[in-house]
Specification:
This protein is an alpha+beta fold and 530 residues long. Helices cover 40% and strands 20% of the residues. The radius of gyration is 26 Å and the shape is globular.
């Protein structure tokens, strides 16, 4: 009886889940009434006004009021959620805050559909592209596609990337009036925007061009554990039982695996692309120049990495250090503060206290209708602690609320700080935290910045904590930053990125030939100085 009841319960749950998916998919694909759509637009603007501390930094209230009113007036017939998104996103973009994102709802898949692809991969989504001079170039790939690195993507299921990127850029905002972000940002995240645009993809026909040759590649979902070749293995070897390890061997294996886990954390290993977030090597003539590539400030044990790296630089008495922040989209304030402490030569305040709209910004982040019930339940359960913590951290000054980070206190350089020459490589996809780090380095003249204006603003950005809000009818999500995060240094005019001391743009010819003019300039400069 118990087994029957359990089976019936599981069957009922499965049916309810399937029906729930069906209802949701019907809701996000059907035409919504004009009244409901206008209410969603009004709600979107209200939530931005309620939560965003610098909503009118780059556009006046009158101008933004007019744009939202005009949007309301254009809605005179029923629209689907995606149709509303295509109208709403360009309006939100005019706010000029790069951390605000507008995300259309995606059709959901049933449990069975998700399970069917659980152990499968779609290689196209693990590749990396760069958009230069109106060409989308493959710059990193796995498996067989690695032979196509340097080739241009010509079409996807009959559409050109130029057409798609033109549409995607209508919905992407940079900080302020910056222009360098657009080409870099959408090129770097092309697959993400393509998946958002098309939804779940069963297969994809892609055409590449390498020099004068054209290649057609069909992508499908394939087994992650599929063997690269089908060579038959001796059946006797298959049937043989594995050799039992000795106690000493097992202990050695555990030690080896433990060290592997530590190293992966230290370097920020990303299993999906089989690459590290942080790496340090030595380059140039005689390999004496340190080259630190940091793809992001988001994962792993950064403290262990920087401690190890700067100890090594000290022991080798390395005179020149290159820090590559190109295509670094940002991440943790704590990490960039830690890295800066190794570069600073005197006491410093890394960031200002952050302007917020409420005394309880952390609780505000959790209490969102786009958060899971578990997250909201967690926030409610621990709300007395969260509120007490927030009240201690926030204070009112000149009619505005400010949140005090640990990094907004005066700090001393790290005891292992580096005294040599520093070169920082930046481009339009150096955003958010990487821009804040670049601001500090440029303002204190601690580094020579080489490359292209950053996509993130010199004068800071609204980020720190994020609050997603799901519009009631269309299910579109507005995700917004809650804190103004900026360094103690400012420039005029406001709204532009950190400019390089030496401007060098990577061209299409550079990508196709594998040439890196930015690093080459730095290495030549070091040799000339010697």
């Amino acid at each position: 009886m118990i087994k029957k009841a359990l089976l019936l319960a599981l069957t009922a749950t499965s049916i309810i889940s399937c029906k729930s998916v069906e209802r949701y998919n019907e809701e996000v694909t059907k035409k919504h009434s004009v009244v409901a759509l206008k209410e969603d637009v009004a709600k979107a603007y209200f939530k931005l006004q309620q939560n965003h501390p610098r909503l009118y930094q780059y556009i006046s209230k009158d101008e933004l009021d007019y744009k939202f009113d005009s949007l309301q007036n254009t809605i005179n017939e029923p629209l689907t959620s995606m149709e509303l998104y295509l109208k709403l996103a360009p309006v939100v973009k005019t706010v000029g805050q790069g951390h605000i994102s507008v995300i259309p709802p995606q059709k959901r898949r049933t449990k069975e559909e998700r399970k069917a692809n659980k152990n499968k991969k779609f290689d196209f989504f693990t590749s990396e592209f760069q958009y230069v001079d109106n060409h989308l170039i493959l710059v990193r790939a796995t498996n067989g596609d690695s032979l196509l690195v340097g080739s241009e993507l010509i079409s996807l299921n009959g559409e050109t990337p130029q057409e798609l990127i033109k549409d995607y850029n209508k919905n992407v905002a940079s900080d302020g009036y910056n222009k360098t972000l657009f080409e870099s940002f959408v090129g770097k995240r092309f697959q993400r925007y393509y998946a958002r645009d098309k939804g779940f993809i069963d297969s994809l026909n892609v055409t590449y061009k390498l020099k004068d040759s054209v290649f057609n590649r069909k992508y499908n979902w394939i087994d992650k554990k599929a063997k690269k070749d089908s060579t038959k293995v001796d059946s006797l070897k298959i049937s043989a039982s594995p050799k039992r390890l000795t106690k000493v061997a097992r202990k050695a294996l555990r030690k080896k695996n433990k060290q592997k886990r530590k190293d992966r954390s230290k370097y920020g290993y990303i299993p999906q692309i089989k690459a590290n977030t942080r790496e340090m090597t030595f380059v140039g003539k005689d390999s004496v120049t340190a080259y630190m590539k940091i793809k992001g400030f988001t994962n792993g044990d950064y403290e262990a990495f920087y401690e190890e790296s700067f100890k090594l630089l000290d022991s080798l008495q390395t005179k020149d250090l290159i820090i590559d922040l190109r295509d670094n989209g940002g991440g943790r304030i704590a990490e960039i503060n830690d890295l800066y402490s190794y570069l600073a030569q005197e006491d410093f305040t890394f960031i200002n206290e952050s302007e917020v709209t409420t005394r309880t910004p952390i609780l505000n982040m959790f209490m969102s209708n786009a958060k899971s019930p578990v997250s909201q339940g967690f926030a409610i359960l621990f709300s007395p602690i969260i509120v007490a913590h927030n009240l201690l951290k926030t204070k009112k000054r000149d009619g505005k609320l400010y949140y005090k980070f640990r990094q907004s206190k005066v700090q001393s350089p790290h005891e292992q700080n580096y005294n040599g020459n520093v070169y920082v490589l930046i481009n339009g996809n150096s955003f958010s935290a990487s821009s804040i780090l670049s601001t500090n380095l440029k303002a204190t003249k601690r580094a020579t910045l080489v490359g292209q204006e950053t996509g993130g603003a010199y004068n800071g950005t609204v980020a720190g904590l994020f609050k997603p809000y799901k519009l009631p009818t269309s299910k579109i999500i507005i995700n917004m930053g809650l804190m103004q995060v900026d360094a103690p240094y400012k420039v005029k005019p406001d709204g532009y990125g950190v400019t390089p001391d030496i401007e060098i743009n990577t061209t299409l010819a550079d990508l196709e030939s594998g040439n890196d003019p930015v690093i080459n300039w730095v290495l030549n400069s070091i040799e000339e100085r010697k």
